[in-house]
Design a protein that fits this description.
Strand content: under 5%
Shape: elongated
Helix content: 55-70%
Number of helices: 12
Radius of gyration: 18 Å
Distance between the termini: 15 Å
Largest sheet: none
Length: about 190
């Protein structure tokens, strides 16, 4: 990502931060489960956004968590500004779509990932939105654990409409949600 693109994003996040009141900031800190050891040092929303970015919950390709917490603090107006910013950025910049992966996102990626996820494949698949009936079919149709994991990721990619439409950052988020940070670090820039 070009420096000017990073600057554009940082400037936008600062604008959002400046629009958040002290009470809203306290709610934001609570909703985002900020460590109590550092919550007292946070004086601006921008600091919370930095934490979300470090956790892998906020990136140029993924503003979902930010929009979710803005809705939770009843700032629909700011959520709408984020939506508009996303539309503007995607229309005017040439950002790499999935800069977060350490290798090309394709069948080889999910093959290698499925080996690492192992017995955790069902919970990760469900977090990705693979339906229980699809999980049950995979479990029934494939006996080997690695193949079950692979088929779960493949089903997710197909449900998204293919590799060009599936967002691998969703996989990163699912891995981090289930405390699979070592695997996430192997496949994604964290």
């Amino acid at each position: 990502m070009a420096d000017k693109d990073k600057l554009l994003i940082r400037k936008f996040l600062k604008e959002i931060s400046d629009s958040i009141s002290r009470d809203e900031l306290e709610n934001l800190i609570f909703i985002c489960s900020i460590n109590s050891a550092i919550e007292g040092t946070i004086t601006k929303g921008f600091q919370v956004f930095d934490i979300l970015e470090k956790r892998g919950e906020l990136s140029i390709n993924d503003f979902r968590r930010l929009k979710e917490v803005l809705v939770q603090i009843n700032r629909i107006d700011l959520k709408n500004r984020v939506d508009e910013f996303e539309r503007r950025v995607s229309a005017t910049t040439r950002l790499p779509l999935y800069a977060a992966t350490k290798m090309e996102f394709n069948e080889d990626f999910i093959t290698k990932l499925s080996r690492e996820v192992g017995t955790n494949w069902k919970m990760v698949a469900r977090r990705l939105g693979v339906k229980d009936v699809e999980v049950d079919e995979i479990e029934h149709d494939y006996r080997k654990l690695k193949e079950q994991s692979y088929q779960a990721f493949r089903t997710w990619v197909e449900n998204c409409g293919g590799y060009d439409k599936a967002d691998p950052n969703e996989i990163k988020t699912a891995l981090l949600d289930y405390q699979l940070k070592r695997i996430a670090e192997e496949f994604f820039d964290i």
